[in-house]
Amino acid sequence: MKSLRYLYRIGHGPSSSHSIGPYRAAKYFRKNYPNAISYDVTLYGSLALTGRGHLTDKTIKETLKPIDTKIVFDYKTPVPHPNTMDFTLYFEDGSSITKRVFSVGGGAIKIEGEVEEAEEEVYPEKNFAEISALCREKGWSLVDYVRHYEGEEIFDYLAKVYKQMMETINKGLSATGELPGTLHVKRRAYEFLTSIYENESAVGRAYRSIMAFAFATGEENAAGGMVVTAPTCGSAATMPALLKYYQKVYEVPQKKVIEALAVGGVFGNVIKQNGSISGAEAGCQAEIGSACSMTAAAYAYLKGLSLDGIECAAEVAMEHSLGSTCDPVGGYVQIPCIERNVLAATRAETAVRLAEYAADTRSISFDTIVQTMIETGRDLKKAYRETSKGGLAKEIKVSKEK
Ligand code: SF4
User: Fold this and answer.
1) 284 C-alpha vs ligand 1 centroid, how far in Å?
2) Residue 47 CA to ligand 1 centre (angstroms)
3) Were 312 and a residue from 76, 82, 189, 359 both cysteine, which residue would form a disulfide, CB within 3.0 to 4.6 Å?
4) Domain span holding position 33
5) According to the model, what pLDDT value does residue 117 have?
6) What is the tally of structural domains in the chain?
7) Distance between CA atoms of 340 and 214, rounded to whole angstroms?
8) Distance, CA 14 to ligand 1 centroid (Å)?
C-alpha cells in the first residue's frame, strides 16, 4: 500500500477523479512535452457524462492555458475504465501523439506507456488482517504502525492536511449565496449552524454543529474550493466535520487529532488497495461509504477504543453504507453529495457508539466488508456509477449550462 500522502491530497474540488486527476494529467503533459502547440482531449465514460458538472473540461483547459485545447465529450465509445481520457498532442513539425489516461480515483492517474512520478509502495501488508496481526505481534497501535513505515515526517504532512481541512470548513461557514451551476443550490452551512431551535437538547446541538461543518466543506468542494481528498473530493466533507467537532468539544491536543487522521488513513488505504474509492467504479458506497468508514476509525481512536473496537467501527460504518449509488444530479457534486456527507459524518459517530457497545460480539471483519463493497459495486448497474443516468439524476430534470 502507498503512502498516506496519496490518500489525503490537497487540491481543488469538486471531484478527485474528475477534476484533480485530469488536472494532474494535464500538468504532467505540460511539464513533459513542453513543445506541444495544441491539444485535443477526448473524455469518455463517466468523465464525458458528468464532466461538465464536475468542471473536468474547464480544469484541463485552465491547466493547459494558453495552449489551444479542444475538449470532445464522447458518450458512446466503450472504454476499459469508466474514467478514461485521450490526450492528443500536436507539434510544430506536424506530428502528433495520443496518450490514454485513466483517472482511477482519489486524484490518482495512470498514463499508458508513461512512467509517472513514482508513488512508492511503503506498506507491505496486503489487508487489515495482516496489519492487525503485525500490530499485535509488535505491541503497536495503528499510529505506531504508520510511524514505523512512514517515519515522523508523515505527521508533519498530516498536520498540513488537518490545517487545510479546518481552513476549508471556516471558509465554507463564512460563504453565502448559491453554488455554481444550474441547480441553484443555496449554501446552508452558516445558516444551519446558527439557527435557533426551541428546546433543542445538547445532543441535538452537537449533531447540528457536526452537520454544519460537513455542509461547509461539501459546499466549498462544490464551488471548486481547496479541499482534502478523504478519500475523494466528493466525500471530503465527512471526516473534517467529526474531527473538528471532537477537537472543539473535548479540547484534545491537535497532535492526537493528527494521529486520528493516520488511523483513518490506514483503513482508507486498505479500501483503496482491495476495494475502490471511485464512485464511477463502485458507486457512492466507495466514496462516502469509505469516508464514513475512515471517519469512524479515526473517531474510535480518539475515543480510546481498542484495535478490535476501531476495526469494528470502520466495519459497521461501511456495512451500513453498502449499496449506496452514485447519481449526482446534473453531474454536479451537489445533490445528493453534500447532504450525503452531512449524514455520513453523523453516521460515523453512531458507528463508534455501536462499536463501543458491541465490538466483542461482532464477527464481520473489515476485510470481509471491503470485499463485499467491491462485489456490490460491480453488481450495480452502470447507471448508478457516476453516469448521471440513474437514480435522482434521472428523476430530476436539470436545465443545461449555457
Ligand atoms: S453521489 Fe457520491 S460518489 Fe457520486 S459524485 Fe456524489 S459524492 Fe461522489
Assistant:
1) 5
2) 13
3) 359
4) 14-110
5) 60
6) 2
7) 9
8) 10
